[in-house]
């Protein structure tokens, strides 16, 4: 599993709240930014003031044919499931979170990972040099002495 969190370079904490008044939140990045962005969702939970009702959270994005699709990712209820771990569920922006049912408040939390293009090429160079180092460390096989 890829590292996420404060110890991971290029990662910043992400959070948003969906309520009866704010039914959706769109996470997007600047179109001119040439970095790669990944949003890794860790948890969806009901927060203070939530009623004991079903709260359905959908992720709205685009499929491979560029058509909008909405996929439910959580169905929370205060009395039986107030919290759901999403295990760093990765999404690529732009993506919209929508409270399809219920009044919330529902909080989504995770990490926004930013990978700059020059960092990606640097990592590839590192991988190559590690392979070369491993090859250098192997001793040649010598024939057995009689």
Write the layout of secondary structure elements.
Elements lengths: L10 E8 L5 E4 L8 E11 L8 E8 L5 E9 L6 E9 L3 E7 L4 E10 L1 H21 L9
Antiparallel strand pairs: 1-8, 2-7, 3-6, 3-8, 4-5, 4-7
Give a description of the structure.
This protein is mainly β and 146 residues long. Helix content is 14%, strand content 45%. The protein is built from one helix and eight strands. The protein has one helix spanning 117-137; strands spanning 11-18, 24-27, 36-46, 55-62, 68-76, 83-91, 95-101, 106-115. The strands form two sheets. A four-stranded antiparallel β-sheet has the order 1-8-3-6. Strand 4 and strand 5 (68-76) form a beta hairpin. The protein is elongated, with a radius of gyration of 22 Å. The protein starts with 10 loop residues before the first strand and ends in a 9-residue tail after the last helix. The model is unreliable at 1-7 and 119-123 (pLDDT under 50).
Calculate Rg over CA atoms.
Answer: 22 Å
Cα distance spanning the termini: 49 Å
| Low-confidence runs of at least 5 consecutive residues | 1-7, 119-123
Strand order of the largest sheet: 1-8-3-6
Question: Strand share of the residues?
Answer: over 45%
Count of helical segments? 1
Mean pLDDT: 82
Number of beta-strand segments: 8
Form type? elongated
The percent of residues in helical segments reads 10-25%
